[in-house]
Amino acid sequence: MNRVASLSQRERSELFSETAAIRGMTPAVVEKDFWVTWTLGKLFSEEDLSSLLMFKGGTSLSKVFHLIERFSEDIDLILDWQVLTGEDPEAERSKSKQQKLNEDINKKAQEYINEELFPKIADCIAPVCHCSGVEEDSYALDIRYPSAFENTYLRPEVRLEIGPLASWVPFAEYTIRPYAAEEFPDVFQKPDCNVKAIKAERTFWEKATILHHEAHRPEGSPQPPRYSRHYYDLAKMASAEVKNTAVADIGLLESVADFKQKFYPRAWARYDLAKPGTLRLVPSGHVLESLRDDYRAMRDIIFGEYPEFDDIISELQNLENEINSVVPD
């Protein structure tokens, strides 16, 4: 991919435009996908970075597992909390001590990202791209890439969202490639790169517990923007084989719910009910209409089939019923 990264602006413009024409995408999306993949390749080819980081989240569902067809501008990464504390964050302790440890880890993570990761990543991507901090988010870094296009609606940056309070298990190593390399592999000397990513089954249950959390959101408490992506993601996963392997591992659901209860406690989220028999995926009526509007605004980032919102809710209702009918071992 370094060969393509060093092509002239005109050559990159032609490559991304031709790829976009074949795939029915906009050239700017194809370009950004290239730089997302290139950035991941850089991060996971450097031992002192790959040992600290794990790829997760929605972008992994698209790039690694091909389970969703929506575009994400961000790369979600887990920072190994072992570089931040000598304690075992998952050990038993009182709620107050756990809360203090969580706060300490988050504070140290901000310092570590700024003082340790920032210079390493900046050096890793130079001189092709430029790394900068994000003023409003001390857990994020922006990778600015040399865009081949002018005046696109996409910012020419890849945002790294880095957090320490997330589990590394289960994970595996995977191979990914950009859309441009899928269509024109001969242009690339090395079209693929390797990443470490959380397995799709855990992300399935992460998404399910987000929806469970939202189903219990109190009336009058506004849902964060862009949350409809989680409903879309889980509905897409529900129609794939990953649903069967995830539902066959209810112990992983319990692990995800326990983790959230420990590190992201909210009494109203009712993670204690995130289990067969009482799991909720379908939102309450007071959330449904705002969620519908939010999903409508998401139209431009879905590059494949755009499911109707009612079909998504129907798929999730069927999934909720299926999970709740499981008899745990």
Instruction: Please provide the count of β strands.
Output: 7
- Overall domain count: 2
Q: What coarse outline follows from CA principal-axis ratios? A: globular
Number of helices: 13
Radius of gyration: 20 Å
What proportion of the residues is helical, as a percent range?
A: 40-55%
Given as residue ranges, the uncertain stretches (5+ residues, pLDDT < 50) are none
Structural account:
This protein is of the alpha+beta class and 329 residues long. The protein has two domains: 2-198, no CATH class; 200-324, no CATH class. It is 49% helix and 13% strand. It has 13 helices and seven strands. It has helices at residues 2-5, 9-23, 27-45, 47-50, 58-63, 95-125, 179-183, 200-215, 228-238, 241-247, 250-263, 285-297, 309-324; strands at 53-56, 74-79, 130-134, 137-144, 157-163, 171-176, 193-198. The strands form two sheets. The protein has a five-stranded mixed sheet. Strands 6-7 form a two-stranded antiparallel ribbon. Helix 8 crosses helix 9 (228-238) and helix 8 (200-215) crosses helix 10 (241-247). The chain is globular, with a radius of gyration of 20 Å. The N and C termini lie far apart (47 Å).
Question: Which labels suit this protein?
Answer:
five-stranded mixed β-sheet; alpha+beta; 49% helix; 13% strand; two-stranded antiparallel sheet; globular; 329 residues
